[in-house]
Amino acid sequence: MAFTTLVDVRTAAGLLGRADVAFVDCRFQLHEPGWGLAAYRSSHIPGAAYADLDRDLSGTKTGENGRHPLPDPDALRGTLGRLGIAGGMQVIVYDQDSSMYASRLWWLLRWMGHRDVAVLDGGFAAWGAAQGPTRSGEETIVMRAFVGAPDHTMVASLAEVTALVTGQAGAGPGSVRLVDARAPERFRGDVEPLDKAAGHIPGALNHFFKDNLDEAGRFRPADALHARFATRLGTTPPDRVIAYCGSGVTACHNLLALEHAGLPGGRLYPGSWSEWASQPQPPIATGD
To answer: Can you tell me the distance from the alpha carbon of 244 to that of 262, in angstroms, rounded to the nearest whole number?
Structure first.
């Protein structure tokens, strides 16, 4: 048993109660941070732990490093152990529906060297629609010793992105391509509800993370995702993709979709637009 991208509700339900499987609930709302924990306490998949985006899946903010910087690796090891995760375990993560928050924990676990992690396709909404069992209240989670170290090759820094934008990183066939996961109106700079400036990083292309989903909120089939990314990326190989979004969360959704489509190797710019827009006089592009 090893699920490394997505798992469907029926398969996940068959893994309930196994000592070598950890479920983690990642439900969250940016504009109401306490909603996710309240929703978890009201109803969750039996045995699931709860991980909060701000408290558990992000690090300390400085005002210039983005809204959801990466956690300190030592702190993250402690968090993952508290969530009941250790080496050799299958982890299944979920959120309310679109997987935008669950994909962040999916990426963090892979960053820390744990590859057997999959997102529940369709999230808690799909679980409920299938009449999967639920429990309320808090779970007693067995704490474990998580051992892992960050893979720095999976990350692109502000300095690297700056060099790319200013032309210091080279260009031509096979060059790095920035892919922005935000909604098209934010990419264009028509609106900006969260960050200090509107627009996008110059040279980036837009692939809205919700385009990875079908009308039912499930991920599109792997071949359909492959075709969509091939159209967007052109000649850019997947391992030359740097994914970003507003704060390094929904960019992980695009990286998950790429992996599921058989296009692995993309990297995350964790600070994303919220870090970029906080720098002194950052280069900014608007429009399509």
So the answer is: 20
Considering the candidates 39, 245, 252, 258, report the single residue annotated as catalytic: 245
- CATH code of residue 19: 3.40.250.10
Helix, strand, or coil (residue 120): strand
Q: What is the pTM of this model?
A: 0.96
14 and 121 share one domain: yes
- Contact in structure between 3 and 116 (CB atoms under 8 Å): yes
Helices and strands, number each (H, E), in the chain? 10, 9
Nearest of 42, 50, 38 to residue 140 by alpha carbon: 50
Q: Give tens-digit pLDDT for 217-238.
A: 999 999 999 999 999 999 999 9
CB under 8 A, 24+ apart: contacts of 220-228: 222/260, 222/261, 222/262, 223/261, 225/257, 225/258, 225/260, 225/261, 226/261, 226/262, 226/263
Query: Which domain covers residue 259, as residue numbers?
Result: 152-276
How many whole angstroms separate alpha carbon 193 and alpha carbon 246?
10
Known catalytic residue at 245: yes
Give the span between the Cα atoms of 238 and 255, in whole angstroms. 10
The answer on 160 and 88 residing in a single domain is no
SS3 of 90, please? strand
The Cα 175–Cα 160 span in angstroms is 13
> Is pLDDT above 60 for 171?
no
